[in-house]
Amino acid sequence: MGEPVPADAGGRHDASVGQLTDAWVAAIHARGFVSAGRAELYELLSGAAWWTTAVVDGRAETDMAADVGAELVAAHLTDPAALRCSLDVLSSHFADRTTDPARLRRFTAAVGAMSAGYARTLQQRTRTEQDRISTAAFAARSAAENARWRSEARYGAVFENTALGISVADADGTILEANRALAGMLGYPPGELVGRSVFEFIHPEDTPEMWPQIQAMLGGRVGHVRMEKSYFRKDGEQVWTQLVVSLIRDPDGTPRHLVAMIEDVTERHRLQSRLQHQAEHDPLTGLPNRALFFHRLTAALDAGPDSRVGVCYLDLDGFKAVNDTLGHDAGDQLLSAVAQRLHDELGVDGHTVARMGGDEFVVLVEACTGTAQLNAVAERALDVVRRPVALRGREVVVSASIGIVVWPVPHDDDPGGPQDTGDTGEARQSGAAELMQAADTTMYWAKRDGRDRIAVFDQARHRHDVHLFELAGRMPGALDRGEFDLEYQPLVSFSDGRVAGVEALARWRTADGDRLGPDVFIPLAEQTGLIVPLGLHLLHRACSDARAWVDADPSREFVLSVNVAGRQLRQPDAVQRIAGVLERTGWPAHALQLELTESDLMSASGRPVAALQELSRLGVRIAIDDFGTGYSNLVYLHRLPVDVLKLAGSFVSAQDPQAADATREVDSPVILSAMIDLAHSLGLRVVAESVETDGQAAHLRSLGCDVGQGWFMAPPLPAREVEQMLDRRVSFGDGRRPAG
Asked: CA angle, 127 as apex, 122 and 130 as ends, to 5°?
């Protein structure tokens, strides 16, 4: 080929390459495409086979396959049937080697590059031959005026025997001569083209600028035109040609003749059309792919300043479960069925339905009238997706989450939301990308809000998401800079008013002075994985502070309660890390209480359960935080080493006997009493959160609750103020808030 085969790459005698070469030589030689013998063909095609195999195996760049196509043309394999024969041989040879998706992509790319290289080289060769033949024809025609007896035979041979169609027309466009090749190309008997006007062969697909160029030639303003043009044959079939038209002038410069040379390039055009279609459409569903969708979206955004564009971004719910249970073949069938239904339902209205990849589809609504129209389109899409699909003898039902955006989004005073990006090409591309980002974000809102629904883009929510994203990006640096701190809220015993413990509450004091609570940054830390190093940092800080308070007064006895996330316990060395913190700080395990939310405990299985059990054996107490906000299921308390039940603050606030009846649930006191009694029967201590009034405290004491926590006892305190609180006792029942 264009480059030598690497000497260390197995040579041309590799078994697979040899098999491909033998098959290729046999196919070409059997059809008589060239007069070369087998030895010459083998020398040529062994290199082609080696490079093609190298491209498919990923050992060579795809461009080398284009060189293979060019080399086939150079070897005079110029019949399009030779290319088809070669592609058939390659497809047969690699059929059992392209089951791997990556290898299949490389094979498809290699075939496309080889075909493109073949077509490009053949076109260049044809143009060269056209120019050569045209020059010969022009010379023969000119010489005929002075020495007709010498040129007639030469011109006649070229005119009649060439494979190219040739016609000669006068300055008015009337055909004077047409050779047999042109007549056969257009399906007319020889001689029937003579006397007809070239303008009779205008085709509906001719580009608008074509015929003005011909008129310019007839007027003598242009001397040479080259273009690709289609014709209708006499039988109605379409034929694509490479057309070269030259103007012949009289000695005085007056236009006299138009000489047209026409090559039939129908096969090449069809090949290029197929390659173009493959480049712009999804191979599984046949829908427009991402590239074609963005092309149409950009064009729609360019329609005018008053035009509006709507996008529905759709993601199937539960598609992974179909792949995991029924297999990827079934998943592909589901995608194909959904794609066809979406196209049949929405495509009839002129909407573009495209596949973005995976199980994501998008609908483009041009000239959108507003959110109401776009919501109606999304509702139709949801109905289509919800219809059962028959897969492997069973009906499968899936749903979808859809985010919809009407563009441009109405402006507001805050520049943080997506904005109209102007009229320049660069701005339009930026606007298309920003629009799709907004649609993608909105689709995930629908996911988070419960799936099987439609979410409408909202700038305020988008800005909030962007703000959280920026916070998540700042958190690793904030941890390194020590911006995360702790405050401590006392846990007070209802029996004697003594401080039985403190809960460590995380705070983030950002570099710009903001003070953020854990409800803001803890979910971000869990999403990004930063919760593991952050949790260890806060645990170490809390144990160090508690150790300092006890060292200042060894008579102090209290429990240090620290929140942990389920993701922390899923780490394989979670127990070792927690034990290491206790060892380094000197804080005893029996005085440490780890709080997990109800949802984390309910989802605990495998490694988290083993970690909890191992921590319990070390003496660490386990508490359920915010009990009553989740499943409120006491069954799992039998299988998990739980010591403490913390009632959710919202549940406790409804128990205030001083509150108006309209604000309380009728059975709340009964339910709370039953929960406390049941927890005690299971050997659990009960902590009530968010105790805000003396009435709440008195009622909880009467129900036998063990410990209270809330602003009635004390607000969260910085570490320097906790020591004083540890030595105080809280009084209940006098209707006043305790001091401090």
From this structure: 125
Question: Among candidates 230, 261, 221, which has minimal Cα distance to 245?
Answer: 261
Tally of CB atoms within 10 A around 651 = 21
Secondary structure (3-state) at 738 = coil
Contact 577, 605 (CB under 8 A): no
pLDDT at 629 over 70: no
Give residue 147's pLDDT band: very low, low, confident or very high (50, 70, 90): low
Residue with tokens 């803890």: 522
Q: What angle do CA 30, 31, 37 make, to 5 degrees?
A: 55
C-alpha 580 chain-centroid distance:
42
Nearest to 15 by CA among 39, 49, 56: 49
- C-alpha to C-alpha distance for 543 and 548, rounded to whole angstroms: 9
The per-residue pLDDT for range 235-282, each reduced to its tens digit, is: 878 888 888 888 888 888 788 888 888 888 888 888 887 887 888 898
CB 488 within 8 A of CB 717: yes
CA neighbours closer than 13 Å in the CB half-sphere of residue 112: 16
> How far apart are alpha carbons 122 and 118 in whole angstroms?
6
Question: 3-state DSSP helix/strand/coil percent for the chain, to nearest 5?
Answer: 50, 20, 30
**Cα angle value 23/26/30 (rounded, 5°):** 145
573-604 burial code (b ≥16 CB/10 A, e <16): ebbebbbebbeebebbbebbbbbbbbebbbeb
Contact 459, 483 (CB under 8 A): no
Confidence category of residue 639, pLDDT binned at 50, 70, 90: confident
In 347-424, which residue ranges form alpha helices assigned H by DSSP?
371-386
What's the CA gap between 402 and 365, in Å, rounded?
Answer: 14
Neighbours of 224 (CB within 10 A): 11
Do 601 and 639 meet the contact criterion of CB atoms below 8 Å apart? Answer: no
- Any residues with CB less than 8 A from the CB of 365 and at least 6 apart, and which? 309, 310, 311, 312, 351, 373, 374, 377
Angle of CA points 104, 106, 108, to nearest 5°: 70
Q: How do residues 499-532 score in pLDDT, each as one tens digit?
A: 999 999 999 999 888 899 999 999 999 989 999 9
